[in-house]
Amino acid sequence: MADLYHPDAAAIRLVDVLAALGHPVRLEIIHALAGGEERFCGEILPAAPKSSLTHHWRALREAGVINQRRVGRKFYLTLRRADLDTRFPGLLDLAFAEPARGDAPE
Amino acid sequence: MADLYHPDAAAIRLVDVLAALGHPVRLEIIHALAGGEERFCGEILPAAPKSSLTHHWRALREAGVINQRRVGRKFYLTLRRADLDTRFPGLLDLAFAEPARGDAPE
Asked: Which element (helix H / strand E) includes B69?
């Protein structure tokens, strides 16, 4: 299996990050990683179809939003919080301020 | 022709705004409207295919990013800057801080 592509921090583009975050499932994934610790793929949204999640991991990774690390047959994910906070200050805070499912506020 | 749908400010959802802004042409449109004045559709990206722009106007309008007003056969656009700054402080500033074409900074 080829190495997993991750853009360098300086090469992360806002348009790609916005597109990656502009999906309700991917916003939920970001919320699940907000604590900062590395999490196993299978722990995050276990009820969602695996093929769909594979697509979302890649979209987030290629945009520079998450790091994805393979250990055997498992993938571990972390949010690239420091890189994103440096490149686009406040963007993740906006995402975390909204409900994970993107529902209208009460 | 039906009225043009615009969400109320309180109903604007972050996920929709992120998805709307997460496209290089739509980021360019936002840059063209950054001054705050109303602009005629035909003035903005005059070289782009009209059918493609029509799709982008609608994506931005339905997400709550722009106001679109019809006068005869022409459409006039304004950025919903106050609404967006209230709902998602700093988000437009991040978009304006990046080059319109999403190119990597020099």
From this structure: strand B66-71
B54 vs B47: CA distance, rounded Å: 13
Angle, CA A98 vertex, CA A10 and CA A68 arms, to 5°: 40
Structure tokens at A16: 């790609």
The per-residue pLDDT for range B31-89, each reduced to its tens digit, is 999 999 999 988 999 888 888 999 999 999 999 999 999 999 889 999 999 999 999 99
**Do the beta carbons of residue A28 and residue A97 sit within 8 Å?**
no
For A58-83, give the secondary structure using H, E and C. HHHHHHCCEEEEEECCEEEEEECHHH
Of B14, B19, B27, the CB nearest to A95: B14
pTM comes to 0.91
What's the ipTM? 0.90
Domains contained in chain A, CATH given:
9-97 (1.10.10.10)
Integer Cα distance of B71 and B83 in angstroms: 23
Determine the pLDDT at residue B50. 87
Identify the residue among A94, A96, A103 best suited for mutation to test binding to B, counting B beta carbons within 10 A and taking the highest: A94
Q: HSE of A19 in the Cβ direction (CA atoms, 13 Å)?
A: 18
Q: Which of B8, B14, B15, B103 to mutate to test the interface with A (most CBs of A within 10 A)?
A: B15
Verify whether the Cβ–Cβ distance B20 to A20 is below 8 Å.
no
